[in-house]
Amino acid sequence: MAHLWKTDADGNWQPVPLEITGETAEPQQARILPTAIPGSDWAALAAPDDSLHINGQESALGLRVLNDRDELALADGSDEPRRWYFSTEEVVCVVPFPGSEHVTRCPRCKKGIDAGMPAVRCPNPQCGAWHHQIPAGHAEHRERECWTYATKCSLCSQPTALDAGFRWTPEEL
Ligand SMILES: [Zn+2]
Ligand SMILES: [Zn+2]
User: Is it the case that residue 100 has pLDDT exceeding 70?
Assistant: First the structure.
């Protein structure tokens, strides 16, 4: 899920998930809106006098599609311009496989993944491969912990640790 990095009261960067349920009024004046553009799921919308800057450039049009790691800043006259970072990075999480039109095969074990089976989608946006992640003692399915079977995704270099967290944070800047 895409998210915005914002600083908390102690000045630490915190990720805030962007829900595709409607508009998120964050940052305060500039809104982050879901778009219908394939591959560009979010855009920032700001009123002309909000002085929204993206990666240091004023967004004169007021509407701008957001890309991974874009910096948003509102230079609204306060001493410190308020800054946020947009990120499309996903975290590793186990979810019931949503199902698909065609048979989806797990790249680790080559067996099919059925709708509802506990599974992990590789969070690397260039990969996104689904793997089984069925724990031992599951009520319906045999144990099949394919995602965490190795330390890396079977198709890319994404680490599989379930508590790995985000690979990129604004602290790296
Ligand atoms: Zn598998
Ligand atoms: Zn992968």
Answer: yes
